[in-house]
Structure formats: structure tokens, C-alpha cells
Design goal:
heterodimer; A: 281 residues; Trna Endonuclease, Chain: A, domain 1; 2 domains; 7-stranded mixed beta sheet; B: 379 residues; Alpha-Beta Plaits; 6-stranded antiparallel beta sheet; 7 helices; 33% strand; globular
């Protein structure tokens, strides 16, 4: 997800091939009912007003491919893009595209076959399998694009409800610290549980792309964040350190912040099964 | 006890004009005394006080002066709206500032108490955990632009670079510390000469530039420092001084707002919620040898960066940081490699944090750092 979003931006140290063609992010994880009555939920749709074209991405971090889901993507038509902001639907067209990583590519391609083009991110290069309906994309990806020296972005889309607790814990701890520091400056207390699990707080503090997600996804994510908040705030050391930060006792704050760092490590270790972040091959 | 009995505090002014004249008296008094070379005394330490102006950033809709715990603080209103007196006390010393809050985000503080105390008290005020205050942080290239504004003349500069990040792993430690003051009408030539030296280029960060504004009839010469302080060195034109302060503030506001405009957020277009904005890239000309050692300083909450964060090791040469800006409590994310620092600033986060990082990196790590691979945008 982050690699694709990054391609729509203009970073010197990442490939901006989609940005160059005028693509920007339209929607993330939005459920769409197609004209034939099927439901799909693309990970991300990017759209170019220059080309009057949308790219519908299904991002695969692993080897699992839901062939039923791929079949449903096949029912998507131009009439189903009501969620997308486009200059005109005259001559509008689209491609469904799979984004995967190199180490899983051989398993993914077996399932996808030639149904949709695939963009694959490897260590050294990104390359295409299959063909796009949009010729300019075919041209841009005709030859592998080198990723040597490139630094893929990782934080546009920080985490989702499928990520494991060990991965989410630092984000949630950071959110609690943020609220505690703000409390010292006149905000609400981090110990007011009802307050800190409000949607606007979750969006601001825990995940800035929260608002772009579908309602179902928001609900699932919120539940996961609440569980991690409960986990962290059930620890006396965490509560005590957050209380010190809220108290404005400036000279004690750096110690309290150090303690919270250790707390995060301890708690995350208990849940460590997932490799931190994308296993960029 | 006050430091400046010659200038009793006034809380009543007939008009803003009268307040400006009062500032002018402070300025002229300081300048005249310096001209006469006042004799040394316990109070003045042998040098008459200069008029000092501090541009402070405030994210508080209503600052809470009573809640400041880093020193004693009292705010006394005057009869002019938006002008008040701030009395600060620390270690048995008082300082007094006239505070102009006409701009709700960038306050201007004036004082002609001794700099060794006003600077100390100001630093403690800004670092208060009870308020969202910060200094204003001027990149070297922005100071350069300010001194070359219409109506200004370049009259000197200071350099200050201290390497806070050198490690034993570095084979070369080209320059650990550089401090220099140069003044005069051809001081720019000294700057060009320094820039010619390739080995110095990573350490040429302005501590200040000296700008003269005005003409023979009326002028002022101010040192404008990288942390938002202006010190009047000569001249008697309060109008030119305040004009310079306003021009400096305007440039800074544009810079911060440009940063904030490009921060990452969501926007509603009809029924759809879209993502806008992009992460910022600091491109380093000097490579970070050891990421963890670098971060130990960079994320230390007691250091000038005022950050805290949790780090996540992505690979040997990459870390992801979930960070908090301690001046506001705002969360944001960073990614760091040996040659790049990428900053994801969410919408609504104060852009001052980006400038604070950038400027302090210029002064402590690499003065040749580039912002999105250009020099910091001057608006």
C-alpha cells in the first residue's frame, strides 16, 4: 500500500512513475457494488485526470490469492466508478492491477494467470507481468525500473486491523504519550478512556488515514486500537509514567518518557510473531 | 528588583503610536549609551543593554502564563489591546518584556534588560510544558534571503556550528566546531571566501546575519539570529526596526504555512474522502554513520530538537520512528536512512517542528542539508 501511494507522490528517493502520469489517490479500501451485483473491496484506487484512467489495486503482501475475489474484479465496469473524482467519464477507462512482492510472485502469478497485470516490487527493481489497457502504463513499465538506492515510503498507511499487536503497540503508545503531553498543555487526560477512543481522536492520534477507510474497516481498526490501549493502560508503570507527563513536572518528564520506551519494548515482545513492517525482499 | 531602573515599566499608553515612541526611547537610550561607552557597573556589566526582540511561536489559543513552572511568570495587561507586560523571575533575577500579541500565532517580545538574563528567561518560558510555545527557526538560506530583501543591506554575519553527532566510527572529523563573527560593509566577501572552501561547506550555518535597514536620515542595524531573536546594534529608527521585525515574521509565517499546506491529510470532495499532501525529505550531504547513535541524540527529549519517539528497525540501514513533537504533543512519523530523513507530518500538526529539525540539523550535523533536495523554500 505504501509503495503504491509513494508512486503517486514526488519523492526524490522513490519512483514517482504514477505521479508523472498524473495519478493521485482516489480511495482506499472502499467496498464497491459492481453493476452485476458483486461486491469488491480494492485496496487502493488511483486516478489520472490527464489520462482519464483509474488503476484499481489489489495489494498482496503474502502468497494468498482469493480467486473468487479476482473473479469479482472481472465484473467491474466503467459505470461502477461513482466513488472516483474524474474530470469526465467520456473516454474513461480503467485497469485492475495486482501489486505483489518478488519473493511471493511465482505463487501469485499462478493464481492470477493472465487475468490482470501484476506490478512486482523486488529488492533491485520493480517490474510488470501482463498488459495494461492504458498504453502509457505499459510503456512506463515496459522495462524493469531500477530501485537501487531507492527508499520506499512506509508510513503513509501506518497500520491496519490485520497487523499484529506487536506491530501496532508502538503506534498506540505514541498516541497515549501525545495525549498526555497535550493534557499538560490544557487538553484532556489520557486516562479518560471514553474520550481517547473517539473516532476523531483515533484518527488524529493513532492513524491519520483512518477517515479514508470504509466504515467496516474503521470499526475493526478501532476495536483493535481499543484492545491495545486497554493492554497498555492496565500496566501500573505505564499509567504512572503518563501521569507524570500530564503533571507538567518538567524535570521528571524525560525519565517518564524513557520508562515508556521500555514499557513499549516489554509489551511488544510478548506479542512478537510478525516481522516488523514489510519484509521488503 | 528590576535590572533597568532607568526605564520604569509603563502600563498606560495613549495610543499605539505612544507605545512605538516608548520602544523608540528604549532603542535610542541603548544606542546612545553605547555611543557614550557607559562606565562599567554591577548592573550593566560594562555594556549598556541593547533592545532585544524575540519572535515566539505560540500554538495556544489562550496561553496559560500562570501555569508556567520553569520559572515565575506574571502577565500584566496594559491599556492597549494586544500589548501586555511579561515579568519573568528565575534565580533571583527579574526580566521584563513587552509582548505584542497582535499576531495570534507569532508573538513579539521586546526587552532591553541584559541579554544573559532575557535569553535565559526566554528559553525557560519557551520550554514550559504548560504551553505550546516554540522559538522561530530560521534556516541559513532564509536568513540570507531576509538580509537581501528590498531596503536591507548586508552588514555582517555570524557562523555557529557544533557537531553533536560525531562518532568514533567516522574516519574523518573535518570540523567539530566553528564559530565566527564578521561585521562591516564588505563582510559578504568573507562569506564568499569561506564558501569556496569545499571542506567547510557542511559547517557554514548562520548563527545570525546583520542587516541595516533605512537610510542616512533614519536607520537601524539589527542582528537577526537563527532562533528568532533580533538585537539592535546601532541606529535610532524604531520604525525601521519594527518594519524589519514584521518582514522577518511574514517570511517565517509563509515558510511554516507552506510546510503545513503540504502536510498529509484527508479532504472531502463531494462524498469522497481523499488523501492529500506528501512526506518531506531532508536529503543529507553528510552520511549518518550509526543510525542508533544518531537517534539517541536526535530523539532525546532534553535536546534542542524537542522530540521523543519509538524506533522500529526495518533493516540495518533503516529505521522507522513514531514520534511526538514535545512542544505541542502532536504525533508524526519519521523514516531515517544514512542519507535521508523523511518526515510524515499529519494535517493539523504545527509545521514549526519541521523547521526546528531542519535548522538544528544545520547547526549540529550538516549545514548543507537539503529540503526535498532543494534549499528550504523561500516564499
Amino acid at each position: 500500500m505504501n509503495y503504491v501511494i509513494g508512486m503517486c507522490k514526488n519523492h526524490k528517493d522513490w519512483i514517482c512513475v504514477l505521479n508523472n502520469l498524473g495519478y493521485d489517490i482516489s480511495i482506499i479500501e472502499q467496498r464497491i457494488r459492481t453493476s452485476s451485483g458483486e461486491a469488491i473491496k480494492p485496496d487502493i484506487i488511483v486516478t489520472s485526470n490527464k489520462l482519464l484512467h483509474s488503476l484499481v489495486f489489489e495489494c498482496k503482501g503474502g502468497i494468498t490469492v482469493d480467486t473468487e475475489q479476482l473473479r469479482r474484479y472481472g465484473t467491474l465496469t466503467e459505470n461502477d466508478f461513482r466513488w472516483v473524482n474524474i474530470y469526465t467519464f467520456d473516454h474513461f477507462h480503467f485497469d485492475v492491477c495486482i501489486a505483489d512482492i518478488q519473493k511471493n510472485h511465482s505463487a501469485v502469478v499462478v493464481h492470477v494467470k493472465n487475468q490482470f497485470p501484476i506490478i512486482t516490487f523486488g529488492n533491485e527493481e520493480v517490474f510488470k507481468t501482463g498488459k495494461f489497457d492504458e498504453k502509457k502504463l505499459d510503456t512506463v513499465f515496459e522495462n524493469p525500473i531500477s530501485l537501487k538506492g531507492k527508499i520506499p515510503p512506509l508510513s503513509y498507511y501506518p497500520f491496519c486491523e490485520e497487523d499484529e499487536k506487536a506491530y501496532i503497540i508502538p503506534f498506540v503508545m505514541r498516541g497515549l504519550v501525545s495525549i498526555a503531553v497535550k493534557k499538560a498543555k490544557g487538553g484532556s487526560s489520557v486516562l479518560e478512556r471514553e474520550l481517547i477512543t473517539r473516532d476523531d481522536i483515533i484518527e488524529k492520534v493513532f492513524n491519520p488515514v483512518f477517515k479514508t477507510l470504509s466504515r467496516t474497516h474503521q470499526r475493526q481498526l478501532k476495536e483493535k486500537i481499543k484492545k491495545v490501549i486497554h493492554l497498555l493502560l492496565s500496566r501500573e508503570e505505564t499509567k504512572e509514567a503518563l501521569g507524570i507527563i500530564e503533571s507538567r513536572a518538567g524535570y521528571k518528564i524525560s525519565n517518564a518518557l524513557g520508562k515508556l520506551m521500555k514499557e513499549t519494548e516489554k509489551v511488544a515482545k510478548q506479542f512478537e510473531t510478525q516481522q516488523f513492517l514489510t519484509d521488503f525482499p | 528588583m528590576t535590572l533597568n531602573p532607568i526605564f520604569p515599566l509603563r502600563s498606560k499608553f495613549e495610543s499605539r503610536k505612544e507605545f512605538m515612541e516608548y520602544l523608540g526611547d528604549m532603542l535610542t537610550h541603548s544606542y546612545e549609551e553605547r555611543k557614550e561607552m557607559a562606565p562599567p557597573s554591577e548592573e550593566t556589566r560594562g555594556r549598556p543593554p541593547e533592545l532585544k526582540t524575540y519572535i515566539m511561536e505560540s500554538n495556544n489559543s489562550r496561553p496559560n502564563i500562570e501555569a508556567v513552572t520553569t520559572l515565575e511568570a506574571e502577565q500584566i495587561p496594559t491599556n492597549l489591546p494586544k500589548i501586555s507586560i511579561l515579568v519573568l523571575k528565575y534565580a533571583a533575577r527579574f526580566t521584563h518584556f513587552y509582548v505584542d500579541t497582535s499576531d495570534p500565532r507569532f508573538f513579539v517580545l521586546y526587552s532591553n534588560d541584559l541579554a544573559e538574563f532575557t535569553d535565559l528567561h526566554y528559553d525557560r518560558l519557551v520550554s514550559s510544558t504548560a504551553n505550546k510555545f516554540d522559538k522561530t527557526w530560521f534556516p541559513t538560506e532564509t536568513l540570507d534571503e531576509i538580509v537581501h530583501l528590498e531596503g536591507n543591506k548586508f552588514r555582517g554575519f555570524g557562523l555557529a556550528f557544533t557537531d553533536r553527532f560525531s562518532t568514533e566510527l567516522e574516519e574523518e572529523q573535518p570540523l567539530q566546531e566553528l564559530t565566527m563573527d564578521v561585521a562591516g560593509s564588505i563582510s559578504e566577501e568573507a562569506l564568499y571566501a569561506l564558501n569556496e572552501r569545499k571542506n567547510l561547506r557542511r559547517s557554514l550555518s548562520y548563527s545570525k546575519i546583520r542587516a541595516m535597514r533605512g537610510d542616512r536620515e533614519a536607520f537601524v542595524t539589527d542582528d537577526i539570529r537563527y532562533d528568532g531573536r533580533l538585537i539592535t546594534k546601532s541606529g535610532d529608527s524604531v520604525d525601521d526596526h519594527v518594519s524589519l521585525v514584521e518582514a522577518t515574521k511574514k517570511i517565517y509565517r509563509n515558510l511554516v504555512e507552506k510546510v503545513e499546506k503540504n502536510s498529509i491529510g484527508t479532504k472531502k470532495v463531494e462524498d469522497r474522502t481523499l488523501i492529500e499532501g506528501q512526506a518531506f525529505d531532508f536529503v543529507l550531504q553528510r552520511k549518518i554513520e550509526n543510525l542508533d547513535t544518531f537517534l539517541d541524540y536526535f530523539l532525546n527529549p532534553t535536546r534542542e530538537f524537542r522530540l521523543w519517539g519509538l524506533r522500529n528497525k526495518i533493516s540495518e540501514n533503516r529505521r522507522q520512528i513514531v514520534a511526538v513533537d514535545l512542544h505541542t504533543g502532536d504525533p508524526f512519523d519519521l523514516e531515517i536512512t544514512p542519507s535521508l530523513i523523511r518526515i510524515y507530518l499529519p494535517k493539523g500538526t504545527c509545521g514549526n517542528v519541521v523547521l526546528r529539525m531542519y535548522v538544528n540539523l544545520q547547526h549540529t550535523f550538516d549545514s548543507a542539508i537539503r529540503f526535498n533536495d532543494e534549499k528550504m523554500p523561500f516564499v
